[in-house]
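Pilot study result, target chain (459 residues):
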Amino acid sequence: MSAQGDTIAAISTPSGPGAIGILRLSGPRAVEIAEACFRPLGAKGLRERPPRTLVYGSLLDQRGEAIDQVLCTYSLGPASYTGEDTAELHCHGAPMVLSLGLEALFAAGARQARAGEFTQRAFLNGRLDLAQAEAVGDLLEARSREGVRHAASQLAGALSRKIGGIYAALVDVMAHFHAVLDYPDEDIDPFRLEQLDEALSDQEGELNTLLASCARGKLLRDGVSCAIVGRPNAGKSSLLNAMVGWERAIVTEIPGTTRDTVEEQCELGGVPLRLIDTAGLRETGDPVERLGVERARKAMEEAELILVLIDASRPALEEDFALLREAAALAPAILVWTKGDLPAAPRPVRSFEEIGCSAVTVSAKTQDLDELCNEISCAFPQDLYWSYGQILTNARQEEAASRAREAIRRARGALQAGMTPDALLTDVEEALSALGELTGQSVREDITARIFAKFCVGK
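Predicted structure:
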């Protein structure tokens, strides 16, 4: 059954020129509207061809004139992504072609899709549960290989199955308890207190495991905020460019070139990083450079990893010691000796080791970042304890799982205190309700609206 009565359309590929652009439709008139804007090659019309078949033909504008040679396909609900009738037109990725094609679809009766509305319809029509729908968003925004693998597994239902197992076990507790209470004359084995406590304890343990995965989920979703700090000309911008693989930041021999923070994303050592290149830290009378120094210190305070850079070709100064001590007190810090391709100046190793930071040597010029990759990987190890997809990745999921765990703990407390069964069952019902919010069985409409509003248009 359709979640909406109207038919939506959108451009489902990124803006700008590209090899391919896709126009997507979903709703009760999706195939009819696509057929009005598409002229197949040959005598058969679009709906005379089998569903899920690519048909070659012309995309027509509002006046019925051909504007591109395209491929068109359609699917009939409920066997489609959204659970409704859908159609797609695969065009050349020219922005004007896509714009004219979308206007033709609107003129034929479609309306502009809202952000995330295709996936929202898939959820409302039962094609995806809420955990899977959120995985679509995670997949679109994945910043690492591990993030992609996790989101793909969650989309395939890994988290939903994990939650479903906990839910089913609690339902069994409820059903058995109700059977004993409601049918006292039947030959039903009552729960022993130890058996019931063990059943609840097992599910509390499963939720503990899920909640322990939140930090890993945040890392996969958002990446680690990594501040690159050091004195002027320590090689900060050069290192950022080497880490991202292109000339993102301006590099000169003039101290103070970087005045503001420069941010970029990359993956190093299997860890997704949000890099923040900062102004060189020094005392300065330049008001603009002073603002850059203040922002650099703020970036340090907010970072989850700090790379403290020191030019290995020059003697280290007391300022370097002070900066490393400051960084180590704020977050995990790595001492990075830069310009490893140049002759090295004497290093006061003992003094730096006393601060407790690991040290690596890099060369941005020769792209030698192996030691740094290994150290970052060790600082943020990949936990093999969790299977792909069985990780909580956002605050909504964490909050619901926490409420479910607390309700189970209250149920166990009621059991051990010898309270009446109805008090215990109330807590188990609350745990079931919270678990239902994870997959969307009992989530509020305003919550789902906020979730899908974060998606891109056309998805």
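One observation from the pilot: The first strand starts at residue 8 and ends at 11. A full batch analysis is planned for the follow-on phase.
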